[in-house]
Amino acid sequence: MDQREKDLLEKHKENDPELRSLWEDHILYSKQVDKLESKSFRTPTEEQTLKQLKKQKLEGKTKMMEILDRLKKLEA
Question: Model-level pTM?
Answer without folding.
Answer: 0.86
